[in-house]
Amino acid sequence: MAVDMDTVREWLTWSFSPSLGAIVFTLLLSLSLPIIFHLFLYRQRAAVVVPSFVLLGPSGAGKTALLTLFERGTPTATHTSQAPQTVTCNLPAGVTAESHKYRASDDPSTKKERQIDVTDTPGHGKLRQHAYDAITSATSLKGLIFVVDAAAISSPQGLAEAATYLHDILLALQKRHTGAKTSKGPAGIPVLIAANKLDLFTALPAQLVKKRLEEEITKIRSTRAKGLLDSAVDIEGDDEDREWLGEGGDGNFNFGQMKEAEIEVSVIGGNASAKGEEKTQVEQWWGWIAQQM
Ligand SMILES: Nc1nc2c(ncn2[C@@H]2O[C@H](COP(=O)(O)OP(=O)(O)OP(=O)(O)O)[C@@H](O)[C@H]2O)c(=O)[nH]1
Ligand SMILES: [Mg+2]
């Protein structure tokens, strides 16, 4: 570019000269810069995408009950879900997103930042593709909430169903993480196992729900690993394509092994619905959500 050097030089000389024009110009510039900067940042904030969370878990676990409770603040009757639905919810008063804990509570910009998108998915075995689609398509996915019926877990079938689904989800997340290693892909996703229906007297406490799920996943993992070894006899030493959960696939599984794939698993109890005098208990789940924001 043929910039006229003389003009530049002239302009520079003028700007450093103690003339009134130059002083006023510099003064205006230095005073308006912070304002321009503020407006720019403010606009940027308004464009922030709402963090999203996906609800999944076996049918009847209480996902839709939880979604409506998050949305309305009161429990409502539900029906078996056939299709996923996404709802924008607000963090309840008293819960502060982790990234805004030092912000004044009357800051007008926090209103928008208290919003989250929650996607409910159907739990029926044949409709689970919706859940996998929701995980991959959600913009700004901050976490998965795997809802289990803590009372159903006490029966072998209930436990097997929940654990198989959870195993497959964790495996999908692990694959997503390993697959992303080569390029700069998505980091690990935190998972909340919401032990629901703790108001029922047959429900297992959260710690026991965790233990039972880990034991069941240990079984599932070793069964799958055996199947893999049998079918992989002719493909010598094909260790690259790891298909099992956590380290190696032998021994006992525990959720801590998912940290390798940057997946932090927490198990927290509560109840999304309540009968008669009983109250719903979801504060700790809100607390977990706020931690991920
Ligand atoms: N006692 C009790 N019942 C609950 C609780 N949460 C949900 N329920 C009941 O469990 C039943 C199933 O709840 P839903 O929310 O429809 O279950 P879902 O996980 O959405 O099931 P799908 O849509 O089939 O995947 C409903 O009758 C709820 O009222 C709870 O915390 N305690
Ligand atoms: Mg439902």
Automatic annotation (TrEMBL):
Its main location: endoplasmic reticulum. GO terms for molecular function: GTP binding; hydrolase activity. Keywords: Endoplasmic reticulum, GTP-binding, Hydrolase, Membrane, Nucleotide-binding, Receptor, Transmembrane, Transmembrane helix. It is found in: Endoplasmic reticulum membrane. Residues 100-123 are annotated as: Disordered. It is a single-pass membrane protein. Residues 100-117 have a biased composition (Basic and acidic residues). The chain crosses the membrane at residues 20-42. The keyword Cytoplasm does not apply. The keyword ATP-binding does not apply. InterPro entries: P-loop_NTPase, SRP_receptor_beta_su. GO terms for cellular component: endoplasmic reticulum membrane. Belongs to the SRP receptor beta subunit family. This is Signal recognition particle receptor subunit beta. It comes from Aureobasidium pullulans.
